[in-house]
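Supplementary Note 3. Input sequence used for the single-chain structure prediction.
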Amino acid sequence: MRRRVTDLEPGEVGRLGAPLDGAPVSRRLLDLGFVPGTKLKILRRAPLGDPIEIEIRGYRLCLRRSQLRDLEVESEERG
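The predicted structure, written as C-alpha coordinates, is reproduced below.
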Protein backbone atom coordinates (compact mmCIF):
# COMPACT_ATOMS: atom_id res chain seq x y z
CA MET A 1 0.00 0.00 0.00
CA ARG A 2 1.43 3.39 -1.02
CA ARG A 3 1.42 6.14 1.59
CA ARG A 4 3.18 9.37 2.38
CA VAL A 5 6.31 9.12 4.53
CA THR A 6 4.64 11.52 6.98
CA ASP A 7 1.72 9.07 7.45
CA LEU A 8 3.92 6.23 8.75
CA GLU A 9 3.80 5.58 12.48
CA PRO A 10 6.88 5.01 14.67
CA GLY A 11 8.19 1.49 14.11
CA GLU A 12 6.85 1.24 10.55
CA VAL A 13 9.18 0.45 7.68
CA GLY A 14 8.73 1.51 4.07
CA ARG A 15 10.52 1.55 0.75
CA LEU A 16 10.69 4.93 -0.98
CA GLY A 17 8.83 5.34 -4.24
CA ALA A 18 8.64 8.19 -6.72
CA PRO A 19 7.59 11.59 -5.34
CA LEU A 20 3.88 12.47 -5.45
CA ASP A 21 2.69 13.96 -8.74
CA GLY A 22 6.23 14.23 -10.08
CA ALA A 23 7.21 16.77 -7.40
CA PRO A 24 10.93 17.48 -7.35
CA VAL A 25 12.99 16.02 -4.49
CA SER A 26 15.33 18.52 -2.87
CA ARG A 27 19.03 18.12 -3.57
CA ARG A 28 19.63 17.79 0.18
CA LEU A 29 17.32 14.77 0.48
CA LEU A 30 18.92 13.12 -2.56
CA ASP A 31 22.36 13.65 -1.01
CA LEU A 32 21.10 12.05 2.21
CA GLY A 33 20.05 8.92 0.29
CA PHE A 34 16.32 9.53 -0.24
CA VAL A 35 16.14 7.85 -3.63
CA PRO A 36 13.44 5.45 -4.90
CA GLY A 37 13.89 1.90 -3.62
CA THR A 38 15.63 2.89 -0.39
CA LYS A 39 14.28 1.38 2.81
CA LEU A 40 13.55 3.66 5.77
CA LYS A 41 12.11 3.32 9.26
CA ILE A 42 10.24 5.88 11.33
CA LEU A 43 11.80 5.84 14.80
CA ARG A 44 9.86 8.53 16.66
CA ARG A 45 8.19 11.90 16.44
CA ALA A 46 8.51 14.98 18.60
CA PRO A 47 5.54 15.52 20.96
CA LEU A 48 3.78 17.86 18.52
CA GLY A 49 4.55 15.62 15.53
CA ASP A 50 7.42 17.63 14.08
CA PRO A 51 10.30 16.82 13.50
CA ILE A 52 10.38 13.11 12.69
CA GLU A 53 13.37 10.86 13.45
CA ILE A 54 14.12 8.48 10.57
CA GLU A 55 16.60 5.67 10.08
CA ILE A 56 17.82 5.35 6.49
CA ARG A 57 20.94 3.67 5.05
CA GLY A 58 22.28 2.87 8.53
CA TYR A 59 22.10 6.34 10.05
CA ARG A 60 19.50 8.41 11.87
CA LEU A 61 18.34 11.92 11.16
CA CYS A 62 15.52 14.27 12.09
CA LEU A 63 13.59 16.07 9.39
CA ARG A 64 10.58 18.35 9.35
CA ARG A 65 7.26 17.16 7.95
CA SER A 66 7.44 19.90 5.31
CA GLN A 67 10.68 18.40 3.96
CA LEU A 68 9.06 14.96 3.61
CA ARG A 69 5.53 15.87 2.48
CA ASP A 70 5.95 14.88 -1.20
CA LEU A 71 7.69 11.54 -0.60
CA GLU A 72 5.74 8.31 -0.96
CA VAL A 73 6.58 4.87 0.42
CA GLU A 74 5.39 1.34 -0.06
CA SER A 75 4.58 0.12 3.47
CA GLU A 76 6.37 -2.98 4.74
CA GLU A 77 6.34 -4.93 7.99
CA ARG A 78 6.72 -3.22 11.34
CA GLY A 79 10.27 -3.54 12.54
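The chain has a mean pLDDT of 87. The longest strand covers residues 39-45.
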